[in-house]
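Re-running Fe-S cluster assembly ATPase SufC to confirm reproducibility after the cluster update. Everything else is unchanged from the original entry.
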Amino acid sequence: MLKIENLHATIAGKSILNGLTLTVPNGEIHAIMGPNGAGKSTLAYVLGGRPGYEVTEGSVTFDGQDLFALEPHERAAAGMFLGFQYPVEIPGVSYLQFLRESLNSQRRAREEKELSGAEFIRLAKDKAALLGMDAEMLKRPVNVGFSGGEKKRAEMVQMGIMDPKLAILDETDSGLDIDALKAVGAGINSIMRDPAKSVLLITHYQRLLDYVKPEQVHVLSRGKIVRSGGPELAHELEREGYAEAAA
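Result of re-run:
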């Protein structure tokens, strides 16, 4: 699904990623953990195509395609979803309107039939129910007045509606209480646990991994993967910190 080879990237002339190599096969969830400043969010932004990040070396293949040959909207239409640590607010635009336009723009790019208003409402209600979210909240402006947990639940609803092949989730557990953490974990499992889908889950802490059991855990330090292992590695990092693993 995702193959990263010797990836180097800079922002404002500062080197952040320094030879990162990683493969996420179809049907697997891989977690990336690491200290602040290691390059975790930079990796997510580079994969998503955020402006300002320059790739200076290396390659990324997504579902058999050269990722860097695709514009950000083309990456989304090809099946990539990027979840943000801090979802943005968009005053004046209802979540339902935002989600319907987003979905139908992707369907147009794939030459698929657009969903009618009624079809989309049914889909949105189904996905909101799956995440334990009141569908009435989707009538509100995007993330305006939402708590941290509500923003992350709404983002999981968005992911369910978009139904991506690959989800890149950047610290989606940030600021969540126990109930919201469980809901997000359940959302990831219900939407993305599929032989044809994959997840790259970026997190500081092991706690989300209690609900989302990754096949692999990777330690990112100084812009590259320095260690990989099974889920037990996350528990080791929680006990001992990153200094030993990143040495």
